[in-house]
């Protein structure tokens, strides 16, 4: 059996997580006039193409700033998508002044700006106005000439935009992805290097967000873990109106517990205080190392709890599922425990990798085991696997089940892989064409990696990157 060829440097990868990481990365603001394809470019930059962002032919669909987490090479960044800019106010366009304000706010916090233009329409007076606006902001700007689907004519279409005077016009196609590699190389060039993981202090306290829907016992759990009455405990749903930070030292380690307000379904969230409460709760989850997803043992899993689980996984947070009020369940036995665990894995598939604990904040049943579960989840969240071991596992997985073929006879080929970051573990898989690897096969590869390497308590990211076959690589067809 041929071995996967191991290459030292892994370049050019992108992925989405619709959240802020624990340490906020530099921001990239994407701007342009309406209907030039900004959201499509953002989806390409964040790996959310074919399944994510708000993309529509109607001008002005994106009105507020939206965020997406992306990766390229060794760089991690936050992409900020703004609404289409118009400088001559049209009375029919109510939101245009707000969009300009959002664009200005995005630029104020951006390390790089990407101006998107329409190569098919050519350079317009509004493009020139936006270029003048960007020059005054003193932010490094990269010019993306979108809708250059033809690589043959792309350079010709892009040449019209040299007149804007803001640098090289890069021809790209947001629809097909052509030219995105060169564009992303230019985008990340001004970004500062990522902080080395070794520079992170080992003794800094772990941030743990306690999240769940209202009245599942989050505050009672915090009081039990902290050993004191820090949070208000009441049967009235919504007692906690803000994020409560509780510093605790336990088992020789420091923790900061973030007791958040209960998260309701959007349709039930009233304006004002409660809406702000929910936003702060989600923000607390984003800035945590670990999320404790608290459920009520006396109730079935709700849709909003499934949504919360999805949010945790997409945010890249480590997670422990804590089933509270276990004391209220009569006639508990091992069979009930096993079926309950399987039920939760089926109902919350996005965090099926999380350890489950059945506890009682009221009596203290197994609550101290939460500390051990947090420690294990954090350890796996920060795990780095050697390239040689990863490729052995991946080779075995591909040997047992090869990628499926398309109706035209094309088959995906895997060449090699490498881990590029932690928190969560992120693995790049280099292949002939990422589009040939459907979600089912990607889930299979993740399952095999978990079986061989563990990763209990943490999500893992698999990023597929196209690369030409290396001679003698096992993905190469004889």
Describe the secondary-structure layout:
Layout: E1 27-31, H1 38-46, E2 66-72, E3 75-81, H2 96-108, E4 112-118, H3 125-137, E5 141-146, H4 151-159, E6 169-171, H5 180-188, E7 206-211, H6 218-226, E8 244-250, E9 253-259, H7 273-286, E10 290-296, H8 303-315, E11 318-324, H9 334-347, E12 355-358, H10 369-381, H11 387-400, E13 414-421, E14 426-431, H12 439-453, E15 461-466
Parallel strand pairs: 1-3, 1-4, 4-5, 5-6, 7-9, 7-10, 10-11, 11-12, 14-15
Antiparallel strand pairs: 2-3, 8-9, 13-14
Helix pairs in contact: 11-12
Could you characterize the architecture of this molecule?
Residues 26-195, 206-382 form the EngA-type G domain. The chain has three domains: 27-188, Rossmann fold (3-Layer(aba) Sandwich), CATH 3.40.50.300; 202-381, Rossmann fold; 387-466, K homology (KH) domain (GMP Synthetase, Chain A, domain 3, 2-Layer Sandwich). The longest helix is centred in the last third of the chain and has 15 residues, at 439-453. The chain is an alpha/beta fold and 478 residues long. The relative contact order is 0.11. α11 (387-400) crosses α12 (439-453). The protein contains twelve helices and 15 strands. The strands form three sheets. The protein has a six-stranded mixed sheet with strand order 2-3-1-4-5-6, with helices on both faces. Strands 8-9-7-10-11-12 form a six-stranded mixed sheet, with helices on both faces. The chain has a three-stranded mixed sheet with strand order 13-14-15, covered by helices on one side.
């Amino acid at each position: 059996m041929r071995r996967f060829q191991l290459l030292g440097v892994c370049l050019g990868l992108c992925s989405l997580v619709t959240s802020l990481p624990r340490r906020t990365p530099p921001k990239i603001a994407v701007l342009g006039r309406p209907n030039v394809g900004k959201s499509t470019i953002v989806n390409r930059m964040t790996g959310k193409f074919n399944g994510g962002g708000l993309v529509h032919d109607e001008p002005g669909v994106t009105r507020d700033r939206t965020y997406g987490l992306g990766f390229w090479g060794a760089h991690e960044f936050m992409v900020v998508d703004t609404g289409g800019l118009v400088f001559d106010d049209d009375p029919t366009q109510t939101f245009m002044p707000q969009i300009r304000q959002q664009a200005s706010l995005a630029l104020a916090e951006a390390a790089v700006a990407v101006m998107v233009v329409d190569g098919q329409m050519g350079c317009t007076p509004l493009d020139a106005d936006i270029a003048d606006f960007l020059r005054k902001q003193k932010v490094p700007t990269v010019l993306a000439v979108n809708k250059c689907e033809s690589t043959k004519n792309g350079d010709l279409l892009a040449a019209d935009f040299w007149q804007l005077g803001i640098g090289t016009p890069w021809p790209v196609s947001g629809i097909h992805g052509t030219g995105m590699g060169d564009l992303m190389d230019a985008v990340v060039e001004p970004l500062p290097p990522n902080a080395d993981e070794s520079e992170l202090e080992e003794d800094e306290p772990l941030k743990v967000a306690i999240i769940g829907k209202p009245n599942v016992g989050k505050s009672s759990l915090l009081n039990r873990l902290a050993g004191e009455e820090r949070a208000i405990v009441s049967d009235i749903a919504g007692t906690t109106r803000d994020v409560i930070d509780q510093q605790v030292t336990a088992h020789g380690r420091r923790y900061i517990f973030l007791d958040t307000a209960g998260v309701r379904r959007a349709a039930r969230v009233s304006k004002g205080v409660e809406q702000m409460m929910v936003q702060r709760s989600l923000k607390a989850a984003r800035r945590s190392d670990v999320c404790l997803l608290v459920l009520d043992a006396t109730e079935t899993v709700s849709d909003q709890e499934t949504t919360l689980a999805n949010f945790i996984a997409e945010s890249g947070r480590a997670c422990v599922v804590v089933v509270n009020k276990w004391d209220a369940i009569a006639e508990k036995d091992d069979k009930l425990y096993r079926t309950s665990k399987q039920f939760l894995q089926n109902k919350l598939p996005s965090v099926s990798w999380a350890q489950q604990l059945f506890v009682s904040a009221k009596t203290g049943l197994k609550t101290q085991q939460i500390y051990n579960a947090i420690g294990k989840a954090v350890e796996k969240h920060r795990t780095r696997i050697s390239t040689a071991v990863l490729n052995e596992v991946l080779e075995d997985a591909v040997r047992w089940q090869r990628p499926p073929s398309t109706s035209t006879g094309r088959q995906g080929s895997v060449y090699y892989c490498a881990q590029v970051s932690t928190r969560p573990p992120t693995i790049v898989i280099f292949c002939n064409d990422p589009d040939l690897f459907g979600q089912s096969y990607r889930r299979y590869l993740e399952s095999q990696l978990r079986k061989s390497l563990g990763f209990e308590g943490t999500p893992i990211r698999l990023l597929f990157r196209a690369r030409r076959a290396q001679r003698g690589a096992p993905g190469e067809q004889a």
